[in-house]
Amino acid sequence: MNPLLRDESRPRTASVRNSRREARESALQVLYAFEFSGEKPDVLIEDICDLFSEQAMKFIRDLVNHAVTHREKVDELIRSKTENWDFNRIAVIDRLLLRVGICEFMFFEDIPPKVSINEVIEIGKRYSTDNSSRFINGILDSVLEDLKRDGGLHKVGRGIIGD
Q: How much is the pTM?
């Protein structure tokens, strides 16, 4: 792990983490670093994400890779809901969280959309501005409705019916 990226507040003997919330937060850190460094996502994941279970690491890799690979398509969905905003003036963290939420809608069939929205909002409350939660919620709700209407939402598993 790159010592410049090490979280010194986390004890070296910490147990393996398996929380999807923590995995999402680490994916956000990777995406933030990617946004400004242009370094390969796999290198950033290796430098930033440690002490995660194999399952959590797979989730981080999948989430980051979808967000990077489908960035243009996802950003177009965001732009369609923010016509009165200059896209580049949207707070970077908010933009990244919107990408995470939309990627979960589109590529993670086992995660209910409401869970994705709630998780992204909670992470936004921790890492972004006071107004972020309402902004993120509004954009994600609107994108979700469009995906449902256009047949772009494919969900399976427990807790998915009725979304």
A: 0.86
